[in-house]
Automatic annotation (TrEMBL):
Superkingdom, natural source: Bacteria
Naturally occurring in which organism (per UniProt): Poriferisphaera corsica
LpxI N-terminal domain residues: 17-151
Record protein name field: LpxI family protein
Coiled-coil ranges per UniProt: none
LpxI C-terminal domain span: 156-285
Pfam families for this protein: LpxI_C, LpxI_N
Amino acid sequence: MSQAHTASNLASQLPPIGLIAGQGRMPILEVQGIHAAGRQVACIGLAGQYEPDLPDLCDHFAPVGLIRIGQWCKKLRQFGADEAVMIGRVRKSRMYDPLGIFRQLPDFRAAKIWYRVLRHDRRSQTLLSAVANEMQTCGVKLIDSTQYITDHLASEGIMTKRGLTPAQEADIKFAWPILMNMNNLEIGQAIAVKDREVIAVEAMEGTDAMIKRAGKLCRSGNFILLKGPNPGKDMRFDVPTIGLQTIKTLESAGGSCLVVATNQVILADKPRVIEAANKANITVVGI
């Protein structure tokens, strides 16, 4: 019996990998990566968030309430999963709808997190760490969300046909330390810069909205977008992501360069993102 066949048999005997799916294409890429590793996927789709074709791609699937964490654990354990990946967008701004969290009908575990943690600190890292800790108590461990999609992580150096100009190199050298300091304060994960001046900073509105604002402020165009977490980023959740829409928005706003953190930013999916950047004459570089 070959080593490959033996490895395949062992993988098939392992429990499925859980997937907590939000918006966008990333959960689909995650399913593909988990299957490529020979594991089954037990997916719970957050209500009103997941893509309609996701259920048919998974070995097990159930829709769940957005903030019903007890239900997440119950379904994943029913499917036999004791490890899970959390990936896909969920807009944090929904928390600022009046009584927004209670409109989603939280269960006891979610209400407990709100009372003990979130009423004092609503930062994303605080929220997601509290969710991970609560899930651990019910037998489901959240794991690195990039473990099965390493092919879609930003690689080092220039990833596109177009290289960097001296002006862009100077802007990157100026702006990257600023972005890292900003991330240490958990303000956002992206900034727009031109001629050693910060044009726009990302906060809760998201990267695309920030890019549009930068385009309005910098009518001459040719600004650069830098995106990445701080070096100590917890890769279990909220990993910065660049997609086709990001490239389209950057092109429309007049941006000419995208700088991302190597192995800490997801390109969803990478071949299509790089192809789109080449067509838009946008340089993509990982540092």
